[in-house]
Sequence to fold (214 residues):
Amino acid sequence: FGTLSYNVVAAQMGRGKTERILAQAMANIASTLNKLAADNCQYLSGNYGFISYPDELTTGSSIMPHKKNPDVWELIRARTNRLQSLPNEIALMTTNMTQGYHRDYQLLKDVLFPALETLHDILKMSCFMLENISVNPDILSDPRYEYLFTVEEVNNRVLQGIPFREAYQQVGKEVQEGTFHSDRQVHHTLAGSIGNLCTEEIKKKMEKAAEAIE
Fold:
C-alpha cells in the first residue's frame, strides 16, 4: 500500500490475486513440511529404524503389538497435501467472473483463514515432534548398509593413485564377489557435506529471513 491504485478497474481486478499469492507461499511451506513428514514416516518404519519417538507420541497398532504408528506425522502429511491444493482452489473461485465485485469473493475467507490456522498448527506440531526425536547413532553398522560406502572406497583408492576407472572396477568386482568391506569412516570437509553441515551458517540465514518478515 505504498501508493494509490488510481485506476478503478485495476483495483477491482486485484481481488483474489493477493489471496492467491499468499496461498502459493503457504503451499510452498506446506510442500517442505510434507517432505519432512514423509521422511519421518519412512525412517521410523521397521525396515529403516533411523529414528524413534516416545510412546506417547506414537500409537499402537490395533492388530500388531510391536508396531508404533507415526500418527502425528501422517496427519501433518495429509494436511500439508490439502494446503498445497489451496492456490488452485482460489484460482478456480476467482475465474469466470467479469471485473467488479461479486459475492463469490466472500468465499475466499472460508478457505484462506482456516488454512492459515492449520499451517500455524502444523508448524507448532512439527517443532514439538522434532524436539522429541531420537536418532539411532549406530544404524550404519547394520550389514545392509555396507554398500553405502562404495563411492567412498573408490575415492580413497583414487587418492592413493589408482585411476578412477580401475578403482571403480575393483570395488564393483568385490561387491559382486561378496568380499567388499569398508572402514565406514567419512572425513568430508566440503561445505554442506556430512562432515561439515554448516548448521550455524544455515541458522544465521534463517534468522536473517525471519528478521525481514518481522
Observations:
- DSSP finds eight helices and four strands in the chain.
- Residues 154 and 171 are 7 Å apart (CA to CA).
